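Contributing new complexes? Match this layout with siroheme.
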Amino acid sequence: MTDLATTTTTSLNKFEKFKAQKDGLAVKEEIEKFASLGWEAIDETDRDHRLKWVGVFFRPVTPGKFMMRLRLPNGILSCEQMRVLAEVVQRYGDDGSADITTRQNIQLRGIRIEDLPEIFDKFRAVDLTSVQSGMDNVRNITGDPVAGLDADELFDTRELVQQIQDMVTNRGEGNSEFSNLPRKFNIAITGGRDNSVHAEINDLAFVPAFKEVEEAGGEMTPSSPSSPQKVFGFNVLVGGFFSAKRCEAAVPLNVWVSPEDVVALCRAVLEVFRDHGLRANRQKARLMWLIDEWGLEKFRAEVEKRFGKSLLGAAAQDEIDWEKRDHVGVYKQKQPGLNYVGLHVPVGRLFAEDMFEMARLAEVYGSGEIRLTVEQNLMIPNIPDSLLGTFLTEPVLEKFSVNPTLLTRSLVSCTGAQFCNFALIETKNRALKTIKALEAEVELTRPVRIHWTGCPNSCGQPQVADIGLMGTKARKNGKPVEGVDIYMGGKVGKEAQLGTCVTKGIPCEDLQPVLRELLISHFGARLREPAAV
Ligand code: SRM
Ligand code: SF4
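Output block (do not edit by hand):
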């Protein structure tokens, strides 16, 4: 269990202190009590912090209207589940909405504390959980959005992602073994060739890699008759993260695991992080700081001890050799006669009526399944050829396009000032407005991935973008104004690398011409001909 005995209480930060006083998960038993007390009367630490252990986030920007963060392993949900989420936000009228997040997940808005018991009952009835989705817990576990659909995939990640979530959360009931980590923890598994989950920005990531049978222990079953000497598994990356203080790409752990060992390895890494991760300074509590302090060799050795058997060295190369796909559009599945369709959801925002529509589309045209991507978009799989034509005439596809314009297509934005009190700027609405204005000015021949994030916490991942925009305080004519720092050079898919800050403090009101010039000078954009009068 958590080795807090080695750290004196005085050296603990305030988060460690309140966690030591009462575990976050304890609030699970107090939901009825909170509901009858009302949000103003709940103990402040319970309300502002511990409720996040059940996925309920107090929003200082909209007091009394809470946010709820789900867990959707591999970003997959059923139409029944989507309908339940839609019903929840519907009752809040204009306050109710939902966002698809950069971790293939959904957050609901406008939630009233008095409704929590009923909401949790509804969740339970359709096997949804929001447990341990915030604070010092393992976040939504991401997997390939086309798992099981893609003819080129190397491994279907769905089952493994679910197994890891079950291990971490005790099948969605809450697991006190992993409810007091030093800080948040991100896990991703990619089973395709295009690194669709941004493996490099996770604390722990699994990327596909083949190993020689002899190296893999000699007794394993070769992965295919056509490559009799090789078995499939994953190379393991550790320590990737973004924070206001520091951003790092994950580094290879020099470990290869077979799919059967992935859950056990996750457990081993989490135990090491839980018991040895740095807890005094919250700014230094992510996994990479522990790896720095120990060195990779010691970290690997400690993980091996917990794993309980020898870890195999990494395979010489991984199989990430494609550019990253965004899955927006119509695509053939590996199952003959079936298609998956990726719909563009502008900055991930959905309202109740949209959610009901998505559930209906999935049910009428597909198999009832809905999938989400880390680009905050939505996919409907399993649409037969015979229904595809009619599907594409559905009026709602005017809002959620299968063929959006090139800048709109790749736009990602974090929550920003509308709901997030860390935000230094408003993001989602501004992002949409800016893109529209730019598209009126320039023509492009390929998508350019523009990511907005409202503050240095980097939830909108500006470092993976072609052009990343990070909210900051700027000055104009001697006065403080909303501004952005500009990031460039982010590369995703094969040879992924993080972008870096190239320009600081551009006032938001002056941003559009700056972006226009960047699009022209770096991304081949051309000014549109002025319209004939
Ligand atoms: Fe994040 C904190 C939203 C993905 C790094 N993030 C927050 C909070 C909870 C702050 C708060 O209480 O207001 C934001 C909630 C705002 C709201 O009302 O929506 C928030 N983060 C988000 C989401 C919703 C952005 C989005 O619009 O998609 C994403 C939810 C993912 C999910 O479903 O779980 C989200 N956050 C990320 C990512 C991207 C990722 O995981 O790929 C990162 C960077 C990667 C990483 O964590 O290493 C990220 N969020 C942070 C951090 C900085 C962490 C650190 O170590 O310092 C914070 C601040 C913190 O935890 O103290 C933060
Ligand atoms: Fe909030 Fe900042 Fe994260 Fe945006 S990047 S959601 S503003 S914490």
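Reviewers usually confirm one structural detail per submission. For this one: The two ends are 74 Å apart (CA to CA).
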